[in-house]
Amino acid sequence: MTEVARIDQGDAFLRTEDLCKAFPSGNGTLTLFRDLNLTVRRGEMVAIVGESGSGKSTLLHMLAGLDRPSAGAVYFGSTLLGKLTAGQAAAFRNREIGYVWQMHYLLPEFTALENAAMPLLARNMPKNQAFAAAARLLDEVGLGQRASHRAGELSGGEQQRVAFARALVAGPGLLLADEPTGSLDASTADSVFRLLTQLHTAHQLTSILVTHNLDLARRCDRTLRLRDGQLQQIPVAGMQPDQTPPESTADTGTSNVQSSCVRVQAPGPA
Amino acid sequence: MRFELFIASRYLRARRRQALVGVITAISVVGVAAGVAALIIALAITNGMRRDLQQRLLGSTAHVELMRTAADGITHWRSLTQRLRSLPHVTAAAPAIYGQGLISRGARSGGALIKGILPAQERTVSSLLNNIREGSAADLAPSTNAGTLPPLVLGSDLAAQVGAEVGSTVLVTSPQGELTPFGLVPKYQRFRVAGIFHSGFYQYDSSFALARLADVQHLFSEPDVVSVISFKIDDLYRAAAVGREIEAAAGPGFMTTNWMEQNQELFRALRLEQVATFIIIGLIVCVAALNILIALTMMVMEKTRDIAVMMSYGVLPSQIRRIFLYQGLLISVIGTAIGLAVGYSAAWVGGHYRFIHLSAQVYSLDYLPFAPRWQDGAIVAAVALLVSLAATLYPSSSSAGILPAEALRYE
Ligand SMILES: Nc1ncnc2c1ncn2[C@@H]1O[C@H](COP(=O)(O)OP(=O)(O)O)[C@@H](O)[C@H]1O
Ligand SMILES: [Mg+2]
To answer: pLDDT, tens digit, for every residue of B356-381?
Structure first.
C-alpha cells in the first residue's frame, strides 16, 4: 500500500507532483530530485531526514515558492504554486506559510516584538494591531517579558522562540521548519521541539520539520528520508537510521525511467 | 509604504555590524550637506554681486541715455529735455555734457571723465550726488559765487589718486586744446574741489568728476550744447523699448543706449559665473551621491540574508527596492536639510556683518555681498534629491533582485 493509494486528493493539504530539481554544476548537472512526490494531509506533522546536501532545504524552498522546480508542481489544496504571479505568491507566503530555520534570522536592528510583527507590518497592517498580535504570540512562546529586547540580547533558544512567533503571527496553515533545533544544545533543542508540537496543535498547523535528530523525528506523525532524490518513508517502528524500509514508499511516483526531469530539464517551467 | 519607511529609518539609525557602512553613510550625509550648503552660499554671493552691482550701477547710471549719432552735441537741449520728459514711462530727464580730461595736482594726476551737470535735474536721474562723502555738491548749482574758482566734485578713488581733498585746487587739462598765435596749446583751467563722492562702484569712483554744465562747456570750448540727455523710467526692464520711443520722439540723428546694453558684458559675466559655480559645486553633490551609492550597495550586501528572510514571509521585491530607495532619500533629505540650514545661516551672517572684504579694483564692490534667495534653495534641494535618487537606483534594484533560495542556501 503506498501513500498515494491511501490518500485521496481532497485530503491533501500539500502535494508535490513529479517534482524535479537540477542545477548546472561544473560541466554536468546535479540532479537533486527526480519525480519527487510528497503528499501531506492537513494537520500532519511530517519529519524529513536525510544526509547533509541531500536537498532538504531546497525542497522546503520549493514548497514555499522561494525557489522554482526544474519540473513538476507544488499544489496547496487546488492552488498550483507555480501559476501564481510574484505578487500573489508573496501574499500567499505572507498568509499561508510560516518558516523557521536553523538560525533565528531575526533582524538585529529590531526588538523581539517588532521582529515577531514583521509579516503583519509587511502587509501594512496598522502598527498597534500588528504589535498586539505579535505580543500575543510572544506570550504564547513564553517570551512576553522579553518583547523589547533586541535579537542579540536573547539566548539561542529564546531567539528561536521569537522566530516561531514571527512564523506564526500571520496565522499560516503550513509551518516549514528547517533544522530549527540544529544549533541548540540538547535540552534547549528539546524544549524548542516541544514548543513546536504545542504550536502545531494549538494553531492547527500542518508542519514539515527537517531535522538530523532521529529522536525528534520519531515524535512526528511520519518520518521521510530524502535520499538519491527520492523520499522514502521510515516506518514508525524502531527503524535503524540507515536501513531501507521494506516498502520504500513515501509516495514514490512513477519510477519510470523516462522521467519528467529529463524531459523538461532544459527550459524549465515558467 | 509605512513598512518600507519603518525598516529604512531603522536601518539608517542602527549601529552596524560593519562599521564601514555606517562611516560611509555618515560621510554621504555630510557630503550632501556640504554640497548643498556650498551651493547656497555660492549662489547667494553671485546673486548678491549682481544685485549690489546693479543697485550701484543704477544709482550712478541713467536707465536710458539719448545722444547724437554724429557726436556733435545736442543744441536745442532745453526744449528737447522738456518735451521728452513728458513721454509715457519717462519719470525724469536731465542733460549733461561729458569730456575727457586730465586732473592734476602738483606732480600727481589722473585721467577723468568730466561730467557737466545741472544738479537739480541730475539728482532726478542719478544718485551720485547723494553719495557725497566729504564737502558738498551745493556749489554745483549754476551761477553761484562768480569770481571764485569753479567747483568740482571728484570720485573718492580719483581724489585719492591725485591727492586732492575738499578745498584743494586742481588743474583740469582738456586735450581739445585751443588755437593760439603760438599754435595749438592744451587748454587748462583751475578748479576748486568742493566735494568727494563715493558710490561704491569702482568705475565711477575712480574716474568721474562732476562740474557745472557751463564750466564744462567752457572748458571744452563747446557752445551751449550737451552730449547726452539721461532718463529715468518707470520700469527698469523696459529700458530698450522706452529707449526706442525716446529715439523716435527726438527725431533723426539721435540714438539711445540703456543700462543693460552698457553693462551687458558685466551681467553676462555674472550669469556665466553663476552657472559655472553651480556646476563646479554641484560636483560635490555628485561625489556625495557616489557615497550614497557605495553605502547602499554595501548595505544591500550586508542585508542579503535578511532580505531573503523578508521575502520568505511575503515582502515583495518592490517593497525591498523601496526600503533602499527610502534609505537613500533619507540620507539625501537629512543632508539637504542640514545643508540648507547651514548655507542660509552662513549667507545671512555674511550678509549681515559684511566681514569679508574685497579688493574694489577687482570686484567693483569692496565687500562680499550675500543675497540668498529661496528659489535657489528649492533648485539646489531638487538637484540634490534627484542626484541622490539616481544613486539609489542601482543598489535598490539589486536588492530587489536577490533570490531568496540562493541567499538562504549557505550557513
Ligand atoms: N543554486 C544552486 N546551484 C548549485 N547547487 C545548488 C544550488 N542550490 C543547492 N545546491 C546544491 O544542492 C545540494 C542540496 O543542498 P541543500 O538543499 O541545502 O541540502 P540539505 O539542506 O539537505 O543539506 C547541495 O549540494 C547544494 O550545494
Ligand atoms: Mg539544509
So the answer is: 777 766 666 677 888 888 998 999 99
Ligand closest to A102 (CA) is 2
Find out whether the beta carbon of A56 lies less than 6 Å from any atom of ligand 1: yes
Inter-chain CB pairs, A–B, below 8 Å: 79
Query: Is residue B62 in some structural domain?
Result: no
> Is the same domain home to B36 and B99?
no
Q: How confident is the model at residue A10 (pLDDT cuts 50, 70, 90)?
A: low
Which domains are assigned to chain A? 47-68+86-233 (3.40.50.300)
Q: DSSP alpha helices (H): ranges in B1-18? A: 2-13
Under a CB-based contact definition with an 8 Å cutoff, are residues B136 and B195 in contact? yes
Same domain, B320 and B242: no
Distance from the first to the final alpha carbon of chain A: 35
Total number of domains constituting chain B: 2
Mean pLDDT along residues B296-322? 93
pLDDT tens, position by position, A114-140? 999 999 999 999 999 999 999 999 999
The residues that bridge with A25 in the sheet, in sequence order, are A28
Read off the pLDDT of residues B215-269 as tens digits, 9 standing for 90 and up: 999 888 888 999 999 999 988 888 889 999 999 998 889 999 988 888 888 888 8
**Contact residues on chain B for A91, CB-CB shorter than 8 A:** 314
**Which residues of B sit within 8 Å Cβ distance of A?**
1-3, 6-7, 10-11, 13-14, 17, 305-306, 308-317, 319, 403-405, 408-409, 411
In this prediction the ipTM stands at 0.85
Q: Note whether residue B199 is domain-resident.
A: yes
Q: Which residues of A42-64 are buried (b: 16+ CB within 10 A; e: fewer)?
A: eebbbbbbbeeebbbbbbbbbbb
Q: Could you tell me the distance, in angstroms and rounded to a whole number, from the CA of residue B408 to the centre of ligand 2?
A: 9
Whether B209 and B284 share a structural domain: no
Residues B80 and B227 in one domain: yes
**Most informative mutation of A23, A51, A103, A176 for ligand 1 (most atoms within 8 A of CB):** A23
CB contact under 8 A, B408 and A57: yes
Evaluate whether residue B258 is within a structural domain: no
Residues B109 and B242 in one domain: yes
Q: Which domain holds residue B236?
A: 70-252
DSSP at A235: P
Residues B316 and B365 placed together within one structural domain of the fold: yes
- B229 and B323 housed in the same domain: no
- Number of C-beta neighbours around residue B118 at 10 A: 18
A64/B317 Cβ within 8 A: no
Q: How far is the CA of A28 from the centre of ligand 1 (A)?
A: 15
Angstrom distance (rounded) from CA A182 to CA B411: 11
Q: Which residue has the higher pLDDT, B361 or B386?
A: B386
pLDDT of the residue at A90 = 93
Whose alpha carbon is nearest atom 27 of ligand 1? Answer: A53
Same domain for B196 and B174, yes or no, is yes
Give pTM, 2 decimals: 0.76
Q: Which cell goes with B362?
A: 577687482
Look at A231 and B1; give whichever has higher pLDDT: A231
- How many residues does this entry show for chain B? 411
